[in-house]
Amino acid sequence: AKFLGNAVPPVFAVIARAVRVDRKLLGYQLAAYFDKPTARVQLVVSSIAENDNMKICADGALLSKHKVTVSLECQQYAVIAKAEAGVLGEFPAARLEVEWERLPIIVTTYAKKLAKHIPMAALKAGFRLERVANADKEIELTAALPAQKIPEMTLSRMAIPLPIAIPINPDGTLSIHIDEDILTWIHKHIKEE
User: Fold this and answer.
1) In this structure, are residues 32 and 5 in contact, taking their beta carbons and an 8 Å threshold?
2) How much of the chain is helix, strand and coil, in % rounded to 5?
3) Are strands 55-64 and 67-73 parallel, antiparallel or unpaired?
4) d(CA 59, CA 70)
5) CB–CB of 58/67 below 8 Å?
6) How many Cβ atoms from other residues are within 10 Å of residue 15's Cβ?
7) pTM to 2 decimals?
8) Which parts of the sequence belong to the Vitellinogen beta-sheet shell domain (predicted)?
9) Separation of alpha carbons 84 and 29, rounded Å
């Protein structure tokens, strides 16, 4: 099902609304859905104003203990990201693939500027670089822990803040436990913030 709300009740919903002087409603609704059998989570943000059909949908699924997919859609853009953990040769590895149908102009403008600097930065950091023609509107990144070889240059920094935790175990599996109640997980992570 494209929309989980047709199959399961929401785990929670938050509505922020205001009434204007002319009695028109303004505001937004956030609803979260969790389908335990398919390990799928969906967040939907929509406007409750009568002439505003703004809607953003984030949909995530744990496809296996090695693979996660997330999609983000709204009227202006649509992005699908797939993350995979495993072993490349004998070394733990991770792969990130991002595909898009539509992106805001500001994102594509800055991405093109940044992309010009990636090859030189990768070479200076000791990475092997291969140019492969990706499909249109797709980026794929594969990273593996290095072999016994000592790189010519090592760049490191401790405590780099990431927007999300990366739950990869040493054997390459993802350490996401779907059996955990979603509300408990949300409360735990809110308290940590």
Assistant:
1) no
2) 15, 40, 45
3) antiparallel
4) 6
5) no
6) 10
7) 0.57
8) 10-163
9) 32
